[in-house]
From TrEMBL:
ABM domain segment(s): 8-96
Protein name: Quinol monooxygenase
PROSITE patterns in alphabetical order: ABM
Keywords: Monooxygenase, Oxidoreductase
Signal peptide (residue range): none
InterPro entries (alphabetical): ABM_dom, AI-2_Isomerase_LsrG, Dimeric_a/b-barrel
Gene3D superfamilies: 3.30.70.100
Keyword Calcium: no
Pfam families reported for this sequence: ABM
Amino acid sequence: MRQTSQGVTIVASFHLKKDYLDVALPVVAACVRASRQEATNFSYTCRRDINNPLHFVFIEHWQSMEAIQEHEKQPHFLALKAMLERGSEGPLTVTFLEDITAPA
C-alpha cells in the first residue's frame, strides 16, 4: 500500500445482528475512547445510520499505515474485532483513503 505524507483515512462499515446491539455498543464506545488517546491518531469516530440502527460506520484518520498496524494490536481494537467476528451480519468493508487536495 502506498504511503502518503498527509496520513491515512479509513472508512469501515458493518452491520450488526439484531440481537447483538446491546453487546456491541459498549465495545464500540470503549474502542472509540481508547483509539482517540493513541498518539498517532488524528481523528476517530463511529456513526450509526439514521435509517438502519444496525449499520455502523467508523471514520478514522491516522498518521501512517504503520500507525494503523500498531492500532490493530491494541487491546481495545482486538476486543472490537472479536465482537465483530461474533456479532456482525455480512462483511466488514474497509476503505483506505488519501487526501487528493493536499500536496503529495
